[in-house]
Each structure stands twice: as structure tokens, then as C-alpha cells.
Amino acid sequence: MSNFIPVNEPLLDGNEKKYLCECIDTGWISSEGPFVQRLEKEFAARVGRRFGIAVANGSVALDAAVAALDLGPGDEVILPTFTIISCAAAIVRAGATPVLVDSESDTWNMDLSQVEQKITSRTRAVMAVHIFGLPVDMDALLAITQPRGIKVIEDAAQMHGQTCRDQPCGSFGDMSTFSFYPNKHITTGEGGIIVTDDEGLAERCRSLRNLCFKPEKRFVHEELGWNFRMSNLQAAVGCAQLERLDTFITRKRQMGCRYDELLVGVPGIQKPLVRTAWAENIYWVYGLVLDDGVPYDAEEAIRRLAAQGIGCRPFFWPMHEQPVFRRMGLFTGESYPVAERLARRGFYLPSGLALTETQIRRVADVTRGVLVS
Ligand SMILES: *Cc1c(COP(=O)(O)O)cnc(C)c1O
């Protein structure tokens, strides 16, 4: 279908090609090339952190963060059930215990009142995940964790360029992680970064990323690491993308605003919140949640929209309902009604940066048609 509107298409019309050519012309294509350090420095500065450690993707950024904090057997880590598998996987792979909380039905972010209820003497960390365009209220979270000495990993994979009470997302807690997958606000194709103000944690992440090679005796290892390195080619694209971040955020906000306008009066849907007391939505994706009165679920809505050339995606499926974790004996008998409902009734419309005004209009028209029929 030639006029199919995909759920995401990135914008690569800045200096991406120029910087990539520099890599080819100079022969610097591995992680040793200069764009990697440039991206680390510029990205860390952008989010107000001292150190940046570029890695292969946003999922392994979480693995490295969990490992750097020495989270392991006996340690409990609180996280939202409504998130991507990468978050819980990093905790489970480290041998630590994931402890879940439900979401708020309006922001779709983790419910902080439940965080407080889930704290035990074994709670070592909270993994906060900002969802879809609005951040978790990080000041409120840190007010809970800091007095108790609980660490915070901020998964800001969907939040480049967002702020929380005017402080950049990615600047909160002990370590923050980002993804540069093509549907994120800035992309390197595949890629991610860990940012922190703690020199020790930064060093650990650098070492873990690079197989824990030692500077003194390269092939003698005290610890097991991974190859999570980012290539200079990827970082070159990242540097070019970072130059455009403000433009991209403006575009995303315009996109959200246009969808809001064009979907006015469409019955049966909950739209994203425009703002909270601590942030304005940046619409990483434009999510919709079907009201209970709508006689079909998100899967059916996605099917109907696809039949008319619109590519949509379902919301996350909650961690407590993942077969892989249930088989491990995790989350037995647990229920999180808000996340369960979001998973079944939520989906998002095409939200990529390359989306045109004409496409937005068509998506809105088709959505209106599907929901009114
Ligand atoms: C995309 C994403 C990740 C994973 O990033 P990858 O680069 O795809 O591995 C992790 N957490 C959140 C919240 C994400 O949206």
C-alpha cells in the first residue's frame, strides 16, 4: 500500500550524511572514533549531567546501570508494571527482585503512592520510567527515596528534551538512561546512553560496556562485562540529531496539538494530558485509550485503522502479565487494574517526526470514522 502511513518515520535531514561521510573518509568507524566522545559530552551537557556513556541501545543501558549499582540477589527494585520488558529484564537478569506498581490512569506514569507502599527493608532502588511524553514527578519520587537512601535509575528513553519542573529529564536520581532507537526523539539507528554525575558509576559503566578490559593488563579480567559499545557511525548520526533536538520537540508538540484539535468531539477516547503541574507533554507518541463503552478493544481498533492505511501500535503489555515472568514464578496472583486496562484499551497513532500535516489530517479523519461508526 503506497499511501500507508507508518507508525514512525524518523527525520534525518540535518548533518547526518555529512558526519557519516566524515567517518568513512577518515576511516573512523568503530567505537574508538571521535563522534562517540563528542556525543557523550554534548548529550550529558544537554541534560545537565557530568558524564555520558554511549552504549549499543537503551535496553543495555539499563543492564549496565543495574550492574553499576551492584543490584543483585536479595535486592528489591521498584518499577512500573506498565513499561517495556527491558526494565524488568535488567533487574531479573541481575538476580534482583522486581517489585511492581500500577500506573495513574491520567498520566499513565507509575503511581507514586504505591511506590511508598511497596518499600521494604530490602528495597535498594526505584527504576522510574517516563511514559509517552509526560515525566514522572521526579521531585515527589526523590522526596520518597532520598531520605531512605534508595537509589534511583531514571529511564528517560522517551524523554529527550523534556523537563520536570524546568529541570531536564535525564538529570534526576543516581543514573539516567536513554535510547536512540529510530522512534525516539533523537536516533542513532540503534543506540543508547547512560548519564550520571557520579564519577565512580560512570567509570563502572565504561568498564562494563567494554568487557571490563583493564588499562594496565588488557586481557586480564577482574569482572565480567559486555560489549555494549556504540560505533562512531552511530554516534555521528547522534551528534547531527542532537543539534535538532529543540526543533524536534517543537514539532512533536505541534503534532500533539494538531491531533488534539482534529480529534475534538470524537466520542469514546481518552486523549493524552496536555500538561501536569510539573511538565508540558512532548508527545513522544500520541496515545489514545478507548472508553469502556466502546464495544471493541485496542487490537481491533488497530486492525480497523490498518485496513485504512494507518499504522498504529498497542500500548505496553504489563510486566505482571508476561508469560516469561509468570513461568519464573514472578508476580503470582498480582493484579494492577490500571495497567491491565491501558494494555487492552490503549494504542498510539502515527507519531514520527517525518509525519506531515496532510498525514496528520488523514490519520485524524480515519480515526474519527472508525470511532464514530
Ligand atoms: C525504547 C525504550 C527502551 C529500550 O531502548 P532500545 O534502544 O530499544 O533497547 C527502554 N525503555 C523505554 C522506556 C523505552 O521506551
End-to-end C-alpha gap: 23 Å
Mean pLDDT: 97
Q: Mind describing the biggest β-sheet?
A: 7 strands, mixed
CATH architecture title of the largest domain:
3-Layer(aba) Sandwich
Helical amount: 25-40%
How many domains in all?
2
* Order of neighbouring strands in the sheet with most strands: 1-9-8-5-4-2-3
Unreliable residue runs: none
Radius of gyration: 21 Å
What is the count of β-strands? 13
The first-level CATH class name of the largest domain: Alpha Beta
Using the coordinates shown, work out and report the CATH topology of the largest domain.
Aspartate Aminotransferase, domain 2
Helix tally?
A: 13
Percent range for β-strand residues:
5-15%
Bound heterogens, unique: pyridoxal-5'-phosphate
Oligomer: single chain
